[in-house]
Specification:
The complex is a heterodimer of chains A (about 450) and B (about 550). Chain A has about 450 residues and is α/β, with parallel strands linked by helices. Chain A is built from eleven helices and 19 strands. Chain B has 15 helices and 30 strands. Classes of the chains: A alpha/beta (about 450), B alpha/beta (about 550). At the A-B interface, helix 1, helix 9 and helix 11 of A face helix 2, helix 10 and helix 12 of B.
Chain lengths: ~450, ~550
Amino acid sequence: MLDVGRHPNINLMAYSEVQKVEGSIGAFKVTVRKKARYVEEDKCTGCGACEEKCPTVVPDAFNEELGTRKAIYAYFAQGIPSTRTIDPDHCRQLNGKKCGICKKTCQADAINFDQKDQIVELDVAAIIVAAGYDVFDPSRIPEYRYREIANVVTAIEFERLLSASGPTDGHVYRPSDIAARAKIEQLEKTLNKTTKALKRYEEKFGEASEDFYKKFQNGQFSDDEERKKWASRYEEYLGISGPLQELKKQAEGFSSAKRLAFIQCVGSRDFRFYPFCSGYCCMHSIKEAIIAHEHEPETTSAIFGMDIRAVGKGFEEYKIRGGNQSGITYVRGRVAEIMEGANHNPIVIYEDTRERKVKSQEFDMVILATACAPTKGLPDLAKVLGIELDDYGFVKTNPVSPVDTTVPGIYVCGCAESPMDVPESVAQASSAAERAAEVISLQSLNKESAVA
Amino acid sequence: MPEKKDEELRIGVFICHCGSNIAGYLDMEALEEFTKALPHVVFVQRNLYTCSEGGINEIKKGIVEQNLNRVVVASCTPRTHEPLFRNSCAEVGLNPYLFEMVNIRDQCSWVHMQEKEDATEKAKDLIRMGVAKAALLQPQEPIMSEVTTRALVLGGGIAGMTAALALADRGYEVVIVEKQDRLGGMMNNINKLGPSMINADELVSQKIKAIDEHPKITVFTNSELAAVKGFIGKYKVDVKTGTGTKNIDIGVILVATGASVFTPKGLYGYDGKHVITQLELEEMMKKGLDPSIKNVVMIQCVGSRNEDRPYCSRICCQVAVKNAILIRDQNPEARVSILYRDMQMYGVENEEMLRTSKARGVRYINYSPENPPKVEEEKVQVYHPLLGEELELPADLVVLATPLVAREDTHDLSQLLRVSIDENGFYLEAHVKLRPLDFATDGIFLCGSARYPANVREVVAQALGAASRASIPLSKGSVVVEPIISVLANEDACRGCGLCAALCPYGALEIRETEKGRKVHVIDVACKGCGVCAATCYQHALTINSYTDDQVTAQIEAFLGG
């Protein structure tokens, strides 16, 4: 990524969208909308002081909303370019409120609330579509109760939980526990405020709140407005401190998730959603199970799948190693349903097709290996480019020219073409680069022969 | 070598947190304080990510504002990040070889996660050693060498032909060397390609025609590579042809030699007649299947995913499903059963083909390796796990899906080219994820089933990709080589004994007659800086730039002095 950012022959236009494409192979005219960041890239040093001071906290999309970010932000820490962006939907200043703290903080004078979208025209010989994919939304599968049961997460969410730079610093805490901890924090804050208010009353009236409240309940001071407020404050205190103690007691029992279930083909190989196989999910489940085991050696994982498709170089060996050394059990079968048990534990109900029995098993956490869905913007992009999509919504190619779209001079690589893993994407990216380079070479060869 | 003896040493050390990868396990403040006190260190800074654009700018700012003349980064591995940090130094005018990297992530925080104090102490040792070496670093200049704009493609199958055409279309000369008497490789034995059901012959003859007509492509059939000398951009290869040996100058080499099919001798009663391989079935189907064949049983994973060959050969399930559909096309009454462990129909097209086959009445029965099917006279016995009972399937024809295996000549060829092979005998790429089509050796590239079994769509994509990778040195016309190489530091000491030249794995050393007698000569572009020669030279005449005896001794002393 950094190489791309630094390469003298690459003009990186992040936070931009293609609006119009005219012309044909060898001579495309492309209109790009460069969206306003409200931060001037050339002035920003990427120091992040603005982000620290920004008062607006929003859910962090990069961390799958398991953590938070500010209204001025970098999508993720190593992102290129390393400049910040103001989120116009959440920034107070851009929404007519008084703020501008970032502008005051920035020593490089890079914040510019008046920045506008820019339209840039490009002349190019060839175009490569590398738009990637979207994660299938598993809440469309009612029987898996994603979002209903807190401890059922997607593979990409689990990836963030495993990541050292993720919201839990790489500890596999259960989302129900994370939520409970957040609740404790919030209750403690409120309780602090309430306690302070009570203290003020206690000092003023020279009496402990508890003693006062007994008298108040017995009908004393019923026409004293200030004491009424005191009483309601005390009731508030009682309302918080009980549940807080309860939660804290529960939290003492929290530990990282050690019994994991991975469910394969969530949204893929499923006629209701995507009939195709997403290709890489078997391997990423195995990988996540192995890493979880590395983090916490007591971890065991069950991977529920119809076929475990470990088809790449070294993959079958990796799968076997996961079974032998990382506590993975491979269960042949499709999971029918996930229920919620005690302590927010998900219970997986499935048929073990080898034993021909319906079974259920309780886990600390369930990870859904979600399908590789065509990215949302692809139909619009296809329209702009004039290229065709296949029956499932991926870019259409043909088997003997696997990176050529239906329009000459426009090429595709990676999961925009069909689901594939990293080595395949990298190989395909080189092929798309080759096809694009052929267009450019041919132009210069033709020029040479014209001159000769 | 330019050297300002009186220049005051000003070393800057940048310590990376790597998010929490390092900072989560080491005492970063202690490291910073420790580093500040090291000799010649005038500037120390900690960064959340030294490799981020912000971190890089801090290094540059440090060099300019603090007048640093040596830079040390204590972070992750030089394998991934040293080029970046070196370039950053160069961008503000500091010779990039005055940079030293210390790996406190892989070697400290990652391996000693549970021992924070000891890991921090080890990081201190490593930083002290890095600083000691940095103090003795000398500026180096990169080495330039021209590139012959001609590519050698080994193998004339679908991979080799596709790559050759791509490069030739870009205007480069290409030489194809094919062992057999004609181009086409394994595709010559194949009937149709799934799932498109394109005739393999048609695709092959199209490619052969394009190659025949292409003025930039020379083909040697019945030929093989006999010798390779030289290095990226300047290879001299000997090609043994039917009429003699040709000596050709080459810039880059593409390995597209394909794979062989495993012959299942002694497995499931294999006889080549009633019990055959999928490849033999292809040839049978080309001629037209005998209409009397009514019952076909296919068995998957024959000779693969076992102890001898633990890998999955990736394409055999696709081949079986395709052939099952084609059998049903030719003999609509034929019953086809596929006995499998996992149906490896990954992706969009393959899964679609699997569904089609089921709609066309192909039967699938899962078996486990502990209880494999038994082939008997005109029948196959298999345990059906869903029914929970043994089945007896009538079988006029049993087809075994055998894996692609590395070709027998892989080992010899890998020695000739000085490239690696993996534990299954296939060629080993430079990085399984990020550089799948490069070899670790510069100037040599890889595609197709020589790397790992792949279907035609994948092979074509890889061949185009390898052509793209190979075209980079061709289009630049020159290569720049790292100057971290062997140098004859003490010419007088060299006795010209030739021990180093005999041991050099890259052919980078020659003994030459000079005015001072026999002396070793380093072919700098060929040298990889591995250090075998310097370690061998008992006269200490040879040394490696940036790994000189003085520098290494300084590191050891720094370690022992701690």
